[in-house]
């Protein structure tokens, strides 16, 4: 039986006028026409974050972001399997979307005014509300983020996390030294090896990382959540019909969960 989310997505596609044969042209959306021409949606994801996008033992991409991409594929192509996932980093995700390498970005990306105003991109909806947090080793003896004055903190560059940490330490008259590492596995290994005192990113990612450690009780997720991070779908600005398709497909997912 077709899952409710996929079924609703196909119905929405009909209402928006996009559920037509793949050979049809002139939809009014350059992105939609490109997706139809290749018969496949290309979606940018992280590809290494449990719960959001991570291959299972069979190589099938699983998680909230991956399923969000599949729903859009179902809406525009009538088949949730007609999709190619492209793992992207925090630094190349926006250029990949801007250049047309991917049709859609669903990669734990925070919706901000600056990104919409300066990058030529639009956010079509929020699929998860997160917040910047800190993970430390229990042996450090720290129980609050306000005890991290002078600490070294591992963080990925080009992220809203990096900005949130700077604001938090400035507001609280504290200092820190950022250890900027792009690759996810490398930054996690740097934290485990003791290269930094704390590891900071979205709280959901830190909780998952801690839970997957064999000695998880040796790590403490500090109680402070120092920012609001609405994560969502991102498309190129200027393709209004594609924006409408992605936005209303997102609404469909909300309705299907009721």
Automatic annotation (TrEMBL):
KW Transport (keyword) present: yes
InterPro entries recorded for this chain?
A: Bact_solute-bind_prot3 (IPR051455), Solute-binding_3/MltF_N (IPR001638)
Q: Key word Signal present in the record?
A: yes
Q: Which residues form the Solute-binding protein family 3/N-terminal domain?
A: 40-258
- Write down the superkingdom of origin: Bacteria
Signal sequence, start to end: 1-24
Which GO biological process categories is it annotated with? amino acid transport
UniProt keywords (A-Z) are:
Signal, Transport
Q: Name one Pfam family in it.
A: SBP_bac_3
Q: Which family does it belong to?
A: Belongs to the bacterial solute-binding protein 3 family.
Q: What is this protein called?
A: Amino acid ABC transporter substrate-binding protein
């Amino acid at each position: 039986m077709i899952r409710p989310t996929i079924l609703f997505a196909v119905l929405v596609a009909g209402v928006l006028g996009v559920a037509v044969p793949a050979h049809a042209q002139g939809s009014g959306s350059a992105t939609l026409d490109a997706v139809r021409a290749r018969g496949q949606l290309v979606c940018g994801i992280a590809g290494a974050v449990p719960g959001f996008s991570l291959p299972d033992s069979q190589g099938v991409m699983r998680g909230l972001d991956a399923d969000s991409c599949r729903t859009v594929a179902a809406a525009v192509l009538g088949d949730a399997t007609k999709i190619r996932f492209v793992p992207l980093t925090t630094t190349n995700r926006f250029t990949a979307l801007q250049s047309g390498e991917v049709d859609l970005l669903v990669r734990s990306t925070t919706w901000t005014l600056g990104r919409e105003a300066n990058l030529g991109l639009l956010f079509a909806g929020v699929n998860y509300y997160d917040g910047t947090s800190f993970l430390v080793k229990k042996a450090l003896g720290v129980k609050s983020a306000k005890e991290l004055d002078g600490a070294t903190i591992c963080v990925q560059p080009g992220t809203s996390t990096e900005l949130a940490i700077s604001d938090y330490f400035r507001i609280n008259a504290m200092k820190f030294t950022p250890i900027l590492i792009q690759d996810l596995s490398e930054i996690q290994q740097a934290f485990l090896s003791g290269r930094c005192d704390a590891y900071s990113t979205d709280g959901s990612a830190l909780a998952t990382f801690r839970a997957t450690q064999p000695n998880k009780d040796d790590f403490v997720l500090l109680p402070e959540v120092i920012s609001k991070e609405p994560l969502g779908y991102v498309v190129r600005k200027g393709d209004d019909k594609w924006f409408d398709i992605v936005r209303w497909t997102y609404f469909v997912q909300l309705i299907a969960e009721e």
